[in-house]
Amino acid sequence: MNRKGLTITYIVKAFPCNYDEGYGNVSIAKKIHRGSGETFLFTSRQALRYSIVNWLVEHGIWKYAQLTSEQGVKQYDPKQLKKEFPEEADLFGYMITAGRGRQAQTRAAVARLTHLISFEPWFGDQELLTNKNFADRLGENPDMANIETGYGYYKYSLSVDLDKVGKDENFGHNLSKEEKIKRVCDLIEATKFLYRDIRGRREDLKPIFVIGGVYHKKSLFFHNAVNVIFKGSKPFINYESLKQVLEAKYTVSEKEIKIIGDLTHLGIQKGEFGDDFGITVSPFDALDRIKEEVEKAFNEKK
Fold first, then answer.
1. Which residues contact 158 (CB under 8 A, 6 or more apart)?
2. Could you give the CA distance from residue 132 to residue 106 in angstroms, rounded to a whole number?
3. Which UniProt keywords are present, listed alphabetically (predicted)?
């Protein structure tokens, strides 16, 4: 395999999708603070992983791996891992403890997610919640609670080490090429129509912009280059920062140099941003083209 690194960066638009421990009757959204003094909402990569795996299971594409707590730790069942190699254990890794004094068996994740981080600062918005309907039906006063909220653009990135998919030294697995391709393409398919169920809401995490491809180098090429800026009330994707990456080159061999843009696919939702830069491909079509590149990469001769 010549091209071993898959990377895709997504832009989505949603309300907060992850919460920290609250206090009293206030639910606290996950957030971080920057040196500028601004506060930004985020959703952890663990929460994204949870939603992606759930999506695949709910749609009958994957099955949950079997779990056990025999060693006092909640983990994948090693008895199953000896017989078969479930998709989530393959792509997202594991650590199997074997008891006191015995070395654990570990597999690093080959599919990795960044946090889902907002482009726009949080302004302290809160939503008042009540159980007024139930209270009225009982003829009593309602209970009240507050939840931190906001609405805006977020980005996250997915990367996959294609050369490590389906191979596991701990339990001796090496899946067929066709199964390896299917697992990676299923993962990309989940991101096309992803949602997250949170606090009675179903948040739409389908992409409104994607950029990525399959490369000879493993790198999050676009994660820090994708930015949304506002001109007045209209959002724009900062194409200048993307252009620098797209025009960058890397060396494959002494005789071969690649331009990143030649291997990259972009997709954008029409009418969402102030300028689509002449891109006519939808995010869904762009992801389908990246899936085709995954298949080609597995079939390439060294």
1. 6, 7, 8, 10, 111, 112, 113, 187, 188, 191, 212
2. 50
3. Antiviral defense
Q: Is 253 helix (H, G, I), strand (E, B) or coil?
A: strand
How far apart are the C-alpha atoms of 208 and 39, rounded to whole Å? 23
Q: Given the DSSP bridges, would you call strands 256-259 and 249-253 parallel, antiparallel or unpaired?
A: antiparallel
Where is 154: in which H helix or E strand?
strand 152-161
Query: 217-241 pLDDT, tens per residue?
Result: 999 999 999 999 999 999 999 999 9
How many residues are listed for the chain in this entry?
302
Strands 144-148 and 26-29: parallel
Contact call for residues 158 and 191 (beta carbons, < 8 A): yes
Q: Hey, where are the domains in the chain?
A: 5-62+109-299
CA gap 252, 98 in Å, rounded: 42
